[in-house]
Amino acid sequence: MADAVRWLGPCSEGELAEAYAGADVHVFPVRDLPGDVEGFGMVAIESAAHGLPTVAFDVGGVADAVADGRNGRLVRGGDYAGFARAAIATLAEDRDGRSARALDFAQGFSWDRFGREALAALAGA
C-alpha cells in the first residue's frame, strides 16, 4: 500500500494540481457520525474539475457532489468491502472515459454557469 498511497499534508495550489494529475481515483470515505454531517463534499467537485473520479460513501450531502456513474461511485455508508470493490472497479475503467465524465459533471458547478444563473435570477426578480 505504501507504494500506491501518498499522504501529502498541506499543499500549495500547484502541488495540489500535480497531485490530482498524478492520481487515478479520489477516495472519500466519509464516516456517518451522529451529529456530524458532511454538508456537501466540495472536494469531490474539485476532483471532478481535474478529471478525477471520486469513490465515496453515500452519507450526508455527498450525493449532491458525486453522481454515481458520472463523476464516480457512491457506496452505502459503512460498506467497506463495497467501497474497496467500487474503487477497484473505477480503476479498471478506461482512464480517458472516466476523466471525461468527471470533467463533464464538474461543468454543472462552474463559475460561468453560476454567473449565468445568478444574472437570470436577478433579472427575473
Structural features, described:
45% of the residues lie in helices and 9% in strands. With 125 residues, it is mainly α. It has one domain: Rossmann fold, CATH 3.40.50. It has a three-stranded parallel beta sheet with strand order 1-2-3. The longest helix has 13 residues, at 80-92. The termini are far apart.
Which key features would you list for this structure?
mainly alpha
CATH topology: Rossmann fold
Ranges where pLDDT stays below 50 over 5 or more residues in a row are none
Structural class computed from helices and strand pairing: mainly alpha
Counted up, domains total 1
Please give the number of β-strands. 3
Mean pLDDT score, rounded? 91
CATH architecture: 3-Layer(aba) Sandwich
In short:
The protein has helices spanning about 15-20, 40-50, 80-90, 95-105, 110-125, and strands at about 25-30, 55, 70-75.
Write the layout of secondary structure elements.
Layout: H1 13-22, E1 26-28, H2 42-49, E2 54-57, E3 72-75, H3 80-92, H4 95-106, H5 111-123
Parallel strand pairs: 1-2, 2-3
Helix pairs in contact: 2-4
